[in-house]
Specification:
This protein has six helices and five strands. By secondary structure, the protein is mainly α.
């Protein structure tokens, strides 16, 4: 992904969804990527660093009225939230998904993803041959068959 972005490309995909059982998910926390802070549902704020895990002040968590909904950590430990290395990209993708334009862009992927899923079903998840050249040939063969099937279906 970094390669694509580095070359000036665009990444359009659904953002990762961080779940946390019945406790508050990461999405319930407010990330501020300008100030590099995260604010929990009770209003406690901590500083963040990409590619690290932030722990909220254990003392604040110990006395928090929302603790039961937030963490299963023992008393003396604060709630932790993992901050991804590519948090900025994830944040952008989450925002994009909330807009009409963003959702339309995501829908553009559907056609391609369906074709890829058909190919994966035909080919399986493992390469059949040793070496890139033979496998590329095999993939093109599978694509050609799939295209012929599509043409036949549309012609019928
Ligand atoms: S338990 Fe801690 S992190 Fe969770 S809401 Fe309360 S103060 Fe915030």
């Amino acid at each position: 992904m970094d390669e694509i972005l580095g070359a000036g490309g665009q990444v359009i995909c659904k953002p990762w969804v961080a779940r946390n059982g019945k406790s508050f998910a990461k999405g319930d926390f407010k990330l501020n990527l300008r100030d590099f802070t995260i604010t929990c549902p009770a209003g406690e704020t901590e500083r963040i660093k990409f590619g690290s895990v932030v722990e909220f002040d254990p003392e604040a968590c110990d006395h928090c009225r929302l603790r039961a909904n937030c963490t299963v950590a023992g008393i003396g430990s604060g709630r932790t939230v993992a901050i991804a290395e590519n948090e900025r990209l994830q944040h952008k993708l989450r925002k994009l998904q909330k807009t009409r334009v963003g959702r339309a862009k995501l829908r553009e992927r559907v056609g391609v993803e369906h074709r890829l899923a058909h190919l994966a079903r035909r080919q399986g998840r493992r390469a059949r041959y040793r070496g890139v050249r033979k496998n590329l040939f095999d993939l093109r063969r599978a694509c050609a068959i799939q295209n012929l099937e599509t043409i036949q279906r549309k012609a019928a």
